[in-house]
Design goal:
It contains 5 helices and 5 strands, in the order αβαββββααα. The chain is α/β, with parallel strands linked by helices. The protein binds zinc ion (ZN). Zinc ion (ZN) binds next to α4. Its EC number is 3.4.24.-.
Length: 186
């Protein structure tokens, strides 16, 4: 019994050391990215919607910008790449969805435009808290940058994510996406 406890202690120590060294995530926990991206890790955006949803988007943008790997910069209505907005749609392709992202292009592998909808009536129906809704916005912004769905339990890119914020592997995936040529995926 005592011996087992010691072994467990060693195992935990080893795991901690690996994490502290910042070793690249293994395939089972890595956040995947697709073949397309923006030309640079920087896009201009406009937001529309109620002051509440502007707050949700602003908070999600602040979280991604704080990672240092990508920058969402306010644009103008005449000049912007990404539109962040809301919809009360509940049926068809929006059935039971919390949010959705549409990307245009890619042209030569590069996104040309993106549009994100937070689906306000579904979010209300399923009682998403403000935090949950920020996580949905962070997830959709992940798609805007080129990330795909992860199976890692703590990833913001988990399909139908509600509870997860941005993980280390999510940040690493953005870094890799913008250091990897278009046409290649993770
Ligand atoms: Zn998604």
């Amino acid at each position: 019994m005592k011996r087992k406890r010691i072994r467990l202690g060693v195992l935990i120590l080893t795991t901690t050391l690996v994490l502290n060294l910042g070793v690249v995530a293994d395939a089972s926990t890595a956040t995947p990215f697709g073949t397309s991206r923006w030309r640079a890790p920087r896009v201009t955006y406009v937001v529309s919607g109620s002051s509440y949803y502007r707050y949700i988007y602003a908070t999600a943008i602040r979280a991604w910008n704080a990672t240092g790997q990508f920058h969402f910069v306010p644009g103008s209505y005449a000049h912007h790449q990404v539109t962040l907005t809301t919809s009360g749609a509940t049926t068809g392709q929006y059935h039971m969805l919390a949010g959705i992202t549409f990307t245009s292009g890619p042209r030569n592998g590069y996104f040309t435009q993106a549009r994100v909808l937070l689906l306000t009536r579904n979010l209300a129906t399923y009682h998403y808290t403000t935090y949950d809704q920020i996580h949905v916005a962070e997830h959709e912004l992940g798609h805007v940058m080129g990330l795909q769905h992860s199976t890692a339990r703590n990833s913001v890119m988990l399909a139908n994510n509600r509870y997860n914020g941005i993980s280390r592997n999510d940040i690493y995936a953005v870094e890799r996406r913008y250091h990897t040529p278009v046409g290649r995926h993770s």
